[in-house]
Design brief:
By secondary structure, the chain is an all-alpha fold. The protein has one domain. The protein has five helices and no strands. It starts with a helix and ends with a helix.
């Protein structure tokens, strides 16, 4: 669902400031992703899917190719991986 919502929003890859696009991503897309995350029993496969979705969003937002490593992507958007941290925090 979150993947489809990201694809519908054209302003994530527009000429808006990076901080504004990051706030939009966290507000709209990650809330869809985290909907009902508290009762989830996450398996290792789920962790991989969530991590890859997070990096996919950053790559699409910044138009970075798939051949660039994850650390470059996170450095370019000046972010750390925090989607899983947000889920773990919501569970407690």
């Amino acid at each position: 669902m979150a993947n489809a919502a990201f694809s519908k929003k054209a302003h994530f890859t527009s000429k808006l400031d990076l901080s504004v696009r990051k706030k939009l991503l966290k507000c709209y897309i990650w809330r869809i992703t985290l909907c009902g995350a508290e009762p989830w029993a996450l398996r290792n496969v789920d962790y991989k899917y969530l991590q890859s979705f997070e990096v996919w969003c950053w790559r699409r937002m910044e138009k970075i190719s798939l051949t660039d490593c994850v650390i470059k992507v996170l450095h370019k958007v000046r972010e750390k991986r925090n989607l899983l941290h947000t889920i773990e925090k919501a569970k407690t």
